[in-house]
Prior knowledge:
The chain is mainly alpha-helical. It has helices at 7-23, 27-51, 71-87, 96-116, 122-143, 156-173. The chain has one domain. The protein is globular and about 45 Å long.
Amino acid sequence: MARIGDTYGVVALVLPWGAWLLLRRHYAAFLHIGAGLGAIALLNTLGKALIGRPRPDTPDYLTGSLAFPSAHASTAVVLYGLAAAFVAPELPSRYRFWAYWVAIALAFPMAISRLVIGVHWLSDLVGGALMGLVVCALVRLAWQRRHRPALTPCPWLLLSAASLVLVSARVAWLPPV
């Protein structure tokens, strides 16, 4: 989970989706999602620098890294939360809630894994998740300011498989960052 939620893992997950958005000329969606991920990266960096909270346990690959907020938790909330927020409107109304449940099912284990391996305090996870929710809300508010074309049809299964292959390769061959 640590490798899936780091920079390389997030890039591996979003690369097929970003490429599809660009190829289909959904530039506004690409920019909004990119802005959300960029904003959460900036807020994580600023939060860690301003708060300066040490980790409960620091493995060698995290030496010099601080705890609050949990970048893994906040990035997972933004990544999966925005995915759900962009997918849900394209689904029939009776299935929309499933997009959000899938996002929760993906983000929650990411956050909890940080607590289990001992590199974050519970408050780091809560703070990161709340910060991620705020970023998701701000991105969606900006997105909804004007009418946007539908993002369908989208090859969800193909893009999901491509993300899974790339993130598996990341976990297997690249060291933690």
